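Lab meeting, action items carried over

1. Structure of the two-component assembly. Owner: GW. Status: complete.
Input record:
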Amino acid sequence: MRPDFTRRRAVVAFASALALSLLAAPPALADFIVPKSGGSPNANHIDSLYKIILYIAAVVFAIVAGTLLYSLLKFRAKRGAVAAQIHGNTQLEVSWTVGAALILVALTVITFVKLPGIIDPPNSDASPVLSASTTEPTPPNGKKLTICVQGRQYIWRYTYGSGCLKNYFTGKLPYSFTTMVVPKGQTVVLDIQSNDVIHSWWVPSMGGKVDAVPGYTTYTWFKALHTGFFHGQCAQLCGRDHAAMVAFIRVVSPAQYKSWLSRQKTSISSANDEVGQLRQYLTSTGQL
Amino acid sequence: MSATATEPRPVPQIITDAVHKPRTTKRWVDWVTTTDHKKIGIMYLGLAMVFFCLGGVEALMMRLQLGVPGNTLLSGERYNELMTMHGTTMVFLFLVPIWAGFANYFVPLMVGARDMAFPRLNALSFWLFLAGGVVFYCTLFWNPPEAGWWSYPPLSSIQFSPTGISSLLGAINFYATIVNMRAPGMSWGRLPLFVWGILVYALLLIIALPAVAAAVTMLLTDRHYGTHFFDPTAHGAPVLYQHLFWFFGHPEVYIMVLPGFAVISEVLPVFSRKPIFGYKAIAAATAAIAFLATLVWAHHMFASPVPLVVLGFFMLSSFLIGVPTGIKIFNWIATLWRGSLRMTTAMYYCAGTIAIFTIGGITGIFLAVFPVDWQLNDTYFVVAHFHYTIFGGGVFPVFGALYYWFPKMSGRMMNERVGKFSFWLMFIGFNLTFFVQHALGLSGMPRRVYMYPPGLGWSAYNLISTVGSFILAAGVLVTIVNVARSLKVGKVAGPDPWKGNTLEWFTTSPPPPNNFDAIPRVRSLEPMRDIRRQVERQTGVRQKTGGSERFARV
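Predicted assembly:
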């Protein structure tokens, strides 16, 4: 038709090609249009729920954007063309209202069907490193590993073992910072607290995030499916070095976990002893 | 109204210019002392655009910092300050007041009134807005806030400014004007959809603002006078603040986009040469969105300590709000269907809005499903989502409204070719900037981080996003230049360059101080169309109005 009309088409084509290439360019395409998963069953369930929504959304978007683009190109003003003077259509209004509502009802049903897999922890694989507790979410057979997660500006502290909320000093439970070490195949329940401002615990491959709010205890769980090293970080703005508040999970075999735990215990107590000796020395020489 | 008011006349025969008072004061005194809704509207628009530029520069600095991994351009402190300033500026000092500006100018014109219901209150609203903006930006010289625009305690510092009062007064004023000052014959079923949008905008402001006023006042007394509303060390509840803030914060989203939707509902029928499809459905959907908007706030808090039943409720309510929003989008497309489309720049921006907002609406459904939200909340996916809704549903229509109403406000046409160039820069830049941010969020990048290490697969997306943001900014700049140039050299618009449907096109461009010397009786949703037809019938001459043919290629 007119030259600038074809130019417009070229622009539209260019824009859509750009959008497509953006989608197609990254080598690991699959990793980037779905959330991270693979580390834990709850993350996998969230991932499959997300994919169902993604498929429905893609169809809805294709229909809406397609119709929009079609009407914009097809119904341009032409000489002699007269616009149809339509004021509305009740049947059409009712049908797309009902249609939209039906999609949402379907999504609600799917979500609640998927929900138990995401919020209820499963049993651990057979393994000897379990401890029991009743305050937090518990797998059906009651066997789980409890780890207390404490957020503070700008570091995560993990205390291992049941009762970690109540007596993490007197119980002399082992602890670590930033990197959490867990055994593979264990259902790990996290009791999450904050010492200062609001933080948010999040290691994407191990499931969704949970805020650490001062004055509250929140819970989540994961069950590591593979050994490996997983990256995460605080997801709620907690101050100037929010970006530096990283969290790692190192998944090891149950045997390795047990030996790591005892090593950690010894190194903490020997470090404590050293500090105690230093303090004694400083006090005796009058420097403290 | 006198009998002459109903007499059809060729457009326009405004004689009010003849009774202009001769100028006795300096020009700037006129602006400072004015109570004319049009002058106040222009001042709102100008000031809001200044804040838009400031907020935009803040955004560009953040994008520069994030362009490459491990960047040391900004410190965490500076970054947090910029982020807070950007969010607060764009929400409180740009989008809310810019709609107040357009509404100030066009609500009285569209309902056929000579001014707002309370002209002095209107002037007070504007000056409070200015004061609020100046106070907020003065913090730059002391300690700028750095806790984000949501300012969750215990982290937050206090931000208090009179802009809240300004918006509240403005909202009451719009409500009173729309309810009381409509032209004869303009029943609720003939109220232009832009005015419906502003009515709901005003109602939402009146409902939502007290909640945030309470929240920041409690925060203020916590910080300075020893109360413990939100202090966890004294059994206060930080989560209470989140509830109060988001009870305001979510309606605020609709306060920013509903007027944008309303602009689309005005522009599409004019340039499709077709009545709006499903007027009642759109008006009802606007009201439904406003009602539901007050019931969805906790979907911002799915990761906070709230019980499962609350999660379920807010998932359902957030789903529900998708239905009226969808109805609007379907009706807009149906308005285009079998029309005779004049692809003006305003039309480009409105079509762009529909495309972009559809993506934002769909990603909203992902976020409403709370288990999925546990993965996506507080990541760049959310940043992408709300820019698709607020930039797409709010800022693109601002530009559409600017191109549509600029001839009325200035009496001159904007350059359409330059306008379309600006649109494409903005559209491509916007999608480059924000589409990849979905992928960033999905691959685990949280929001509000000022730095990230290499090797996490985030670097390429961040670079694309930064490049896109500068293309977007260039697009905005082109429009600003277009405005400045068109004010001087634009073609003279005449009263009705677009063949408009509503009463603002009945008067001269720009309108005289009291808008209309006679107000026509309104017989339908499209009074200007009726007037044109009646004149055509009586004179037998096709109404060629104000040079529209030159732009619309009939």
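2. GW to write a short summary for the group page. Key points so far: Confidence is low (pLDDT under 50) at residues 130-134 of chain A. Chain A has two domains: 3-74+90-119, 145-269.
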